[in-house]
């Protein structure tokens, strides 16, 4: 959030520990106000569509300009992992080993993953 002017909802509460009252890791964020572009687009004038597309392009350019010097998962800087695997980033946080298992047993574009993966349709 400190690296871009793109409006990002604030994190209100979170837990990275599944033994909580919810029974799962979670993130609760502010509601992002607005209307889906899909609902507005048909009624927009050409001038409005051009302005909207320009705003989207400016935001995508900001995202593309972000630099990532390390690859991995985000951890608090006091987490107990091998210091050789910690790479400093924003104060209070480090990049450490990637903790997702999706790609552990295959290479990028390897068919055994991509041929069986179902598309992520969201919640």
Explain what you see.
The protein is of the alpha+beta class and 123 residues long. The protein has three helices and five strands. Strands 3-5-4 form a three-stranded antiparallel beta sheet, with no helix packed on it. A hairpin with a 4-residue loop joins strand 4 (87-88) and strand 5 (93-96). The protein is extended, with a radius of gyration of 19 Å. The mean pLDDT is 81.
Layout of helices and strands, plus pairs?
Elements: E1 11-15, E2 26-29, H1 37-40, H2 46-65, E3 73-76, E4 87-88, E5 93-96, H3 111-114
Antiparallel strand pairs: 1-2, 3-5, 4-5
Structural class: alpha+beta
Ranges where pLDDT stays below 50 over 5 or more residues in a row are: none
Q: Ends: how far apart?
A: 24 Å
Gyration radius from CA atoms, angstroms: 19 Å
> What would you call the shape?
extended
In short:
It is built from three helices and five strands; from the N terminus they run ββααβββα. It has 123 residues and is α+β, with helices and mostly antiparallel strands.
Structural features:
123 residues; 3-stranded antiparallel sheet; alpha+beta; 3 helices; 23% helix; single chain
């Amino acid at each position: 959030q400190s690296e871009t002017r793109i409006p990002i909802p604030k994190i209100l509460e979170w837990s990275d520990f599944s033994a909580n009252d919810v029974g799962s890791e979670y993130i609760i964020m502010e509601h992002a106000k607005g209307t889906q572009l899909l609902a507005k687009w048909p009624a927009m004038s050409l001038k409005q569509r051009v302005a909207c597309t320009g705003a989207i392009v400016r935001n995508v350019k900001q995202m593309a300009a972000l630099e990532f010097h390390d690859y991995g998962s985000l951890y608090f800087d006091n987490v107990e992992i091998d210091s050789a695997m910690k790479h400093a980033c924003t104060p209070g946080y480090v990049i450490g080993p990637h903790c997702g298992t999706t790609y552990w047993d295959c290479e990028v574009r390897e068919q055994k993953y991509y041929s069986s993966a179902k598309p992520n349709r969201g919640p």
